[in-house]
Specification:
The complex is a heterotetramer of chains A (about 280), B (about 300), C (about 425) and D (about 375).
Chain B (H helix, E strand, L loop, with lengths): L5 E7 L3 E8 L4 E8 L4 H16 L8 E5 L11 E2 L2 H12 L5 E5 L4 E6 L5 E7 L7 H11 L6 H5 L13 H13 L4 H22 L6 E4 L6 H11 L3 E2 L9 H19 L24 H8 L1
Helix pairs in contact in B: 2-8, 3-5, 3-6, 6-7
Chain C lengths: L7 H23 L7 E3 L7 H6 L3 E3 L1 H10 L3 H11 L7 H11 L15 E5 L3 H14 L3 E4 L16 H25 L5 H24 L12 H11 L4 H20 L9 E7 L6 H9 L3 E6 H6 L15 H16 L7 H10 L4 E7 L3 H4 L2 H12 L3 E6 L9 H22 L3
Helix pairs in contact in C: 1-9, 1-10, 3-5, 4-5, 7-13, 8-10, 9-10
Chain D lengths: L1 H20 L11 E4 L6 H6 L3 E4 L22 H11 L6 E6 L4 H13 L5 E3 L11 H20 L5 H27 L6 H10 L5 H14 L12 E5 L8 H10 L1 E5 L18 H11 L14 H11 L4 E7 L3 H17 L3 E6 L7 H15 L2
Helix pairs in contact in D: 1-7, 1-8, 3-4, 5-10, 6-8, 9-13
The chains are: A alpha/beta (about 280), B alpha/beta (about 300), C alpha/beta (about 425), D alpha/beta (about 375).
The structure holds adenosine-5'-diphosphate (2 copies) and iron/sulfur cluster (3 copies).
The site of one adenosine-5'-diphosphate (ADP) has 21 residues of chain A, from helix 3 and helix 4.
Chain lengths: ~280, ~300, ~425, ~375
């Protein structure tokens, strides 16, 4: 049996999947990136291989993606998150024409052509406003785990208007609103709204062509999904595997190579890419 | 010298609320400080209570109260309010008549102020949009390194080889800090690197108001010796710090000084000191918030 | 770049270009000693032909500024200007030049730039005019604002003989006459139309060769990279415009490029993708940027920048008629603006044409935060080109010379992804 | 009686205010609206054609930008962004013409954006010259105005007669006289007419037929002298920076809480021509000549006869102002360049000034209040 792996080393979390020859998911793993991207990559790889009940030698081809893709010392090939998220999204929702990926530190909008190819993309990676990190600030200020933010925000009745765009100041704004007696769910809804409008403008930058598929860690957040639906005024595909979409896309590329038997061409050394 | 005049200055900052009590010889009779929290008016009353208690006087003995800081309008028992820029200018010039440029690094903003020989504000600039240029930047790094605010300075002073922090976003700087830690760089070098980065931005702001010597630092950052050193080296000149630990109290001190001036003027003119007039004078109509009759009608319909 | 090959001949053109640039800088440096009047001019719409007639030495402040970037000295100059009070949002060329003024005009090239006796600012970039106002204040030198009406709308066609054409030409000619009297006052010389005809004949020859050189890059593989080699070419082209030396250089260059084409030598060893570059270069990191593309086998076959920075004459092959020199100068200046330079604001058609002419696979837009002339509506333009023509495009952002806006990891990420897009398309088309 | 005066004035101002909030072009009149981007536009020719000039003044701070961010660089001023938004969100879809002028590089791009997105609106650049010092300039402006006249004639399907244009000149001459009267009140008796009020009165002219606006101004000028006012002790300042992108009302209010603005350049294009345009002779020539010879100054018009610093000094003197507020819209290169030049001159003349940067879309004014209060304090605590 042929197995391949996709490893997505993000700014906040490292994700990995193993696919079998039929492109079925044979294992998946996720890990917080703490200190060291290379070791996080190695660990998540070990984990995913174990979860598939395999050993590293069973993996025929590994594609690395994500912000830290050049720090993956063991991969065969690197592909950008843009191509990987697109690939993963199209594999699950073949009619996808626009992908929105909200990650921990950046947001991407990708336009897909009729053959599933990437046509255009836009990203926000200069300022942490409007990224998953904005929610991280909320999670810190409210002392709630990330997974509870969305469900709580959905209960809002009178969302507050968040005025700061800076992620750092957002934290104090949240606390300020709470101190003034606003309910956490209303504050959270405001935070979500602020991200949703920023991301919507990024999506419009590549043209809002349906169907739209929402990927990345923040796609696990139900409030974000529903707000984006409202703001974009269109339905949204969300996969249960949304968080792994980059890793799945990477693994699909790995599968292409493994099937074709083409050798890997790992580019660029670790030093070449500044953090 | 009689001391039957007592003037309080209260500075309601975004992070700390500070108060100073002066008598008519301009001597500091008491000070007080507290975290501002999220109810500035409550913080102001609490600090005022502390102040009178510290001075061992009754509230009724206070002649005049002036407020400053971002919460200056939120104190109902004030006689007047003055902006912190004016207060810093007056206070600094009182201590050091030769100072022409003042820097105040606060938790959520930075201010650079150029003043003249009379202590009047001539030009100023602030930065408050992006956390990368404020005290919050240091606090974030410190939090990541497990340091308390008060420890930042002494800790960073141990640095021998400050590392360069190149990110322009405070959030991304955090990843940079993590990377540096991972590659084995000493935490004090990282802390010092952040201080140098922030110091550079601060000096830039000072230049943008037309930096003239002498320079002074005010606000909470005066407690941070590493920041003082970094600024001095960037400026290539010494920084004046308000004496007697009045650095963080500089704004409150200035507010009290200006209050005292006002009292002296009123008394010299033989006028009464009116009771505190906390509520704002009636403002003219605000067209910006005017709701057209038609809109009001349709909203209620 | 390892992928580049240089023949002995190539070194010739390069060495000749280098020699000319050095000589020009030396001339600039010594102009005051020699009592030669100095004019500051911009690359777009500069009436250099008239200045040559009066024997002005030319200073191109844009080149001074970009050179601070190339020589990695920009941060100091920019900081000086910002400390002086210029907003970070102001054009970085202006700021670098202000930095130079505050450094007593000591340029990092070793040249001391003399003060201007005259400055000409055309209306093609409004910042030129604001910039010239700064010189007026600093040097007390008179600024001559040359208003050259551009396109009034995207499909605007100047048609000789129409009342509209005459109106615009009359306006430009009137101003050129003012300029001539001003030059006469400054230099004490009388205007010599024959000399103007001579200069124009030289410009004609240079433009003819330049158009040839541009066209040679339509060949596959492209013999040179517009955004690296091309930038050197236009430097010489500007500094020596209208001179015999300039003609000679262009001929040498044309021969060299033609030779490469004949031998099938390309700029990159294995040319996989041909690209159009739109926008201004990032002079601090141009080498790095080109390398990011060339490692993927991508070459910039053409760029609208080469037209803008060469004064627009290559657009539709505009030539002077030296038999009626002044009138013809007015005509061609107007046409260069309407057919070439004002395309900044309506560039979608021109870009689409370049894509066709150069058989390009995509367009790379380089947005400059502080250059609103080039970048204001780039995103809208891109949207139009992508939806209308289905072309892959890439948008990257940095600055002309300010290294603070260059983020290597972010740009590399985008370039990598862009080539993945190009590869995918190539696969789908079943080619390459 | 005094109450009646005040409530009549409030009625007038409320009408103006309501007009200032309208984002669309309005359908109250059958005529085609011809949109133009700041600063100045020869409205008389449009008026004479029987068309409706519609000054594009941005979207204010209540508009939600949804589409424009994807089309315009993040480093471009708000008025370009919000105008594009108004185009893309359909608010301006009824425009029958669109003109931008070469005031700055961003504005020239507006013609490109409009051309790509709304070609049916026949977007154009009216190429007003940056060189107004050449003897050939009046003729050139004249030619360009004739071009405009031709375009408009095509739209209405008949020639625009000299007579019609002369009639419009008369209407606009009166309008400018009334505006000057308004500004005289502001200067001589600032407590009687606030800058926000004057601004709303002037701005209303961009949203109604000029004849009606003349009526409105006459009414305001009749009421104002009878208004009961409370004298206040505030420093007199001149405000600059409102020539193109419009500062939010809140900003002007924040300033006026502590200062009197006794002169300003808000909507300067509305009174660009400073004296009556001659109503005899060739009316288009008269208009062109007035543009060159009898006009105001702004950062987006080069004029060797009017260095901006000198203009400011004259304004300060004539308005008897003790200080200046030199503002600029964020990302407005011409404004920012002049801001520096002006502040250097003020430094030299030892005239106090305050530098402010604003954005049309601003909604929070706390920091600005602090700056303005500090400034006023520095003037008062002398
Ligand atoms: N269980 C969860 N529920 C909701 N949101 C989550 C959850 N886990 C992670 N996230 C969000 O996803 C973000 C990380 O997304 P990811 O795509 O992994 O980013 P990156 O690739 O940059 O590491 C976090 O910042 C967080 O906001
Ligand atoms: N004891 C201390 N040691 C070191 N730094 C301090 C200390 N106290 C305050 N600071 C620093 O000074 C900053 C601003 O304090 P302060 O001037 O009181 O702020 P504000 O006026 O904005 O409330 C804080 O964010 C903190 O970084
Ligand atoms: S505004 Fe905040 S999130 Fe954005 S760059 Fe600055 S520090 Fe980072
Ligand atoms: S704005 Fe652009 S075109 Fe104009 S001078 Fe600056 S860099 Fe050159
Ligand atoms: S605000 Fe300034 S930059 Fe923007 S359009 Fe007006 S003049 Fe141009």
């Amino acid at each position: 049996m042929l197995y391949v792996a996709g490893v997505d080393v993000g700014s906040t979390q490292a994700k990995a999947v193993v696919l079998d020859e039929q492109a079925h998911v044979a294992g998946e793993a996720i890990l917080d990136v703490e200190m060291n991207m290379s070791s996080a990559a190695q660990q998540v790889f070990d984990l995913v291989v174990a979860s598939a009940g395999l050993t590293p030698d069973d993996i025929a081809f590994t594609v690395a993606t994500g912000y830290g893709r050049y720090r993956v010392t063991f991969g065969d090939l690197q592909v950008t998150e843009i191509s990987c998220h697109a690939r993963g999204a199209v594999a699950e929702f073949p009619n996808t024409r626009t992908v929105l990926d909200i990650g921990g530190q950046d947001t991407k909008a990708i336009r897909i052509g009729d053959s599933g190819e990437v046509v255009d993309f836009a990203m926000n990676d200069k300022c942490a406003a409007g990224t998953g990190r904005f929610l991280g600030a909320a999670s810190f200020a409210l002392e709630l785990p990330l997974s509870e933010l969305g469900p709580l925000a959905l209960k809002a009745t009178a969302p507050v208007k968040i005025t700061t765009t800076c992620t750092v100041f957002a934290e104090s704004e949240i606390i300020g609103h709470l101190a003034k007696g606003r309910r956490p769910e209303d504050v959270l809804a405001g935070m979500h709204h602020s991200i949703a409008t920023r991301c919507a403008s990024l999506v419009r930058r590549v043209g809002l062509t349906p169907e739209i598929t929402f990927t990345g860690g923040v796609s696990r957040n139900a409030a974000m999904v529903s707000l984006l639906r409202d703001v974009l005024d269109t339905p949204l595909n969300v996969s249960a595997q949304g968080h792994f979409m980059g890793a799945i896309g990477a693994a699909l590329y790995a599968l292409d190579h493994a099937r074709a038997g083409t050798p890997g061409t790992r580019r660029a050394s670790v030093e070449e890419v500044a953090p | 010298m009689t001391t039957d005049i007592l003037v309080a200055g209260i500075d309601i900052g975004s992070t700390y609320t500070k108060a100073v009590l002066l008598d008519d010889s301009r001597a500091v009779r008491a000070t007080a400080i507290r975290r501002s929290g999220y109810k500035p008016s409550a913080a102001a009353s609490a600090v005022f209570d502390d102040l009178v208690a510290n001075a061992g006087v009754e509230k009724a003995e206070i002649t005049y109260i002036s407020t400053t800081g971002y919460g200056r309008y939120m104190v109902p028992f004030r006689h007047t309010q003055i902006t912190e820029l004016t207060c810093h200018a007056v206070a600094t010039s009182h201590h050091f008549p030769t100072v022409r440029t003042i820097l105040d690094i606060g938790g959520q903003d930075i201010k650079a102020i150029r003043i003249d020989d009379q202590g009047r504000v001539r030009a100023f600039r602030l930065n408050d949009k992006c956390a990368a240029g404020t005290g919050a930047f240091l606090e974030k790094t410190a939090r990541y390194l497990g340091l308390e605010t008060g420890d930042i300075g002494p800790y960073a002073l141990r640095s021998t080889q400050p590392v360069e922090i190149s990110s322009v976003c405070a959030v991304f700087a955090e990843s940079e800090v993590i990377n540096h830690l991972a590659s084995g760089i000493a935490p004090e070098d990282i802390m010092e690197g952040s201080i140098v980065a922030l110091g550079g931005r601060a000096v830039q702001l000072m230049k943008r108001v037309g930096l003239e010597p002498d320079c002074a630092l005010a606000g909470g950052m005066t407690h941070n010796p590493a920041m003082v050193a970094a600024l001095e080296s960037k400026l290539g000149a010494p920084l004046r710090l308000p004496p007697h630990g009045l650095g963080q109290l500089n704004g409150a001190f200035g507010a009290a000084l200006l209050g005292l001036r006002r009292v002296e003027r009123l008394l010299a003119d033989g006028r009464e000191i009116a009771p505190p007039s906390g509520e704002d004078a009636v403002k003219p109509r605000r067209w910006s918030t005017y709701v057209p009759a038609s809109a009001a009608a349709s909203a209620s319909a | 770049m390892a992928a580049t090959t240089h023949t002995a001949k190539a070194m010739d053109a390069r060495a000749a270009g280098q020699r000319l640039v050095n000589q020009w800088l030396a001339n600039v440096h010594s102009a005051p000693e020699r009592g030669q009047p100095v004019a500051y001019v911009f690359v777009m719409g500069n009436a250099v032909e008239i200045l040559r007639v009066f024997g002005f030495e030319l200073v191109f402040p844009e080149i001074n500024s970009l050179q601070t970037g190339v020589r990695k000295a920009a941060p100091d100059f920019l900081a000086k200007a910002e400390d002086y009070g210029f907003s970070p949002d102001v054009c970085s060329y202006v700021k670098a030049d202000v930095g130079l003024m505050l450094s007593d005009m000591a340029h990092p090239s070793g040249t001391r730039i003399p003060r201007p006796d005259l400055a000409i600012a055309s209306s093609l970039c409004n910042v030129y005019i604001k910039w010239a106002e700064i010189w007026e204040r600093h040097f007390g030198a008179p600024a001559f604002v040359l208003d050259i009406p551009g396109k009034r709308f995207a499909t605007w066609k100047p048609i000789p003989g129409t009342a509209q054409y005459d109106a615009d030409k009359r306006w430009v000619e009137g101003q050129l006459r003012d300029l001539i009297s001003q030059c006469e006052r400054i230099t004490g010389k009388k205007f010599d139309p024959d000399r103007l005809a001579e200069v124009e004949a030289n410009v004609n020859e240079m433009v003819r060769l330049w158009v040839e050189i541009l066209t040679l890059n339509q060949r596959r593989p492209a013999p040179y990279n517009s955004m690296l080699d091309g930038l050197t070419y236009i430097g010489v082209l500007n500094a020596w415009r209208g001179t015999p030396e300039g003609v000679e250089y262009m001929r040498l260059l044309r021969d060299e490029v033609a030779g490469k084409v004949a031998r099938g030598e390309g700029r990159v060893r294995q040319e996989r993708f041909r690209l159009i570059f739109s926008g201004t270069p990032c002079y601090v990191n141009m080498r790095r940027l080109v390398e990011l593309f060339e490692t993927h086998g991508g070459v910039f076959a053409a760029s609208d920048y080469l037209t803008y920075a060469a004064g627009g004459l290559d657009s539709s092959g505009l030539f002077y008629d030296p038999s009626r020199p002044l009138e013809s100068l007015a005509e061609v200046t107007t046409l260069a603006s309407q057919l070439g330079l004002s395309n900044h604001f309506f560039s979608h058609h021109t870009l689409a044409q370049q894509v066709k002419d150069y058989a390009a696979d995509g367009i790379v837009y380089h947005g400059i935060k502080s250059c609103r002339t080039v970048a204001t509506s780039m995103a809208d333009n891109r949207e139009y080109v992508t939806t209308r023509y289905g072309l892959p495009t890439l948008y990257i952002e940095s600055d002309l010379i300010d290294p603070r806006y260059w983020s290597d990891a972010q740009i590399k990420n985008r370039v990598d992804a862009f080539f993945e897009v190009l590869e995918q398309r190539a696969l789908l088309k079943g080619g390459k | 009686m005094a109450v009646d005066i005040e409530s009549s004035l409030t009625d007038v101002l409320a009408r103006c205010h309501e007009l200032s909030l309208r984002q669309d072009i309005g359908e109250d009149e059958a005529n085609i609206a011809i949109g133009y981007f700041p600063v100045y536009f020869p409205e008389e020719i449009v008026h004479a054609a029987g068309l409706r000039p519609h000054a594009l003044l941005g979207g204010g701070n209540r508009i939600e930008v949804r589409y424009a961010d994807a089309r315009i660089g993040s480093f471009v001023c708000s008025i370009c962004r919000s105008t594009t938004e108004l185009g893309l969100n359909g608010s301006l879809k009824g425009l029958g013409g669109f003109f931008a002028q070469p005031i700055c590089d961003a504005a020239k791009h507006m013609a490109g954006i409009w051309g790509r997105n709304f070609p049916q609106q026949d977007p154009q650049i009216l190429a007003l010259p940056q060189n107004v010092n050449s003897p050939a300039s009046v003729r050139y402006v004249y030619d360009e105005y004739q071009r405009l006249r031709g375009i408009l004639a095509d739209k209405v399907g008949h020639e625009i007669s000299d007579e019609a244009i002369r009639g419009s000149l008369a209407v606009y001459n009166e309008n400018r006289r009334l505006q000057r009267a308004l500004y005289a009140i502001k200067r001589d008796d600032p407590a009687r007419l606030s800058t926000v009020e004057a601004y709303l009165l002037v701005r209303a002219g961009t949203r109604m037929r000029r004849e009606k606006h003349n009526q409105l101004l006459r009414e305001a000028l009749r009421l104002l002298p009878q208004r009961r006012i409370r004298p206040m002790d505030k420093p007199r300042v001149v405000f600059l920076g409102g020539f193109c992108e419009q500062p939010p009302l809140e900003m002007l209010e924040t300033i006026e809480d502590v200062c009197f603005i006794v002169d300003d350049d808000l909507l300067i294009g509305q009174r660009w021509i400073t004296e009556d345009v001659p109503e005899d002779g060739d009316p288009v020539w008269a208009l062109a000549e007035s543009y060159i010879q009898r006009s105001a100054a702004s950062p987006v018009q080069y004029d060797a006869r009017k260095p901006k610093e000198d203009v400011l000094m004259t304004t300060l003197r004539e308005a008897r102002a003790e200080a200046a507020i030199i503002s600029a819209a964020k990302f407005c290169e011409p404004g920012l360049d002049d801001q520096l030049a002006l502040s250097r001159r003020l430094d030299r003349e030892k005239i106090p000034y305050l530098v402010l940067e604003f954005e049309e879309k601003m909604t929070s004014f706390e920091q600005m209040a602090m700056q303005v209060e500090t400034f006023a304090e520095s003037l008062l605590f002398d």
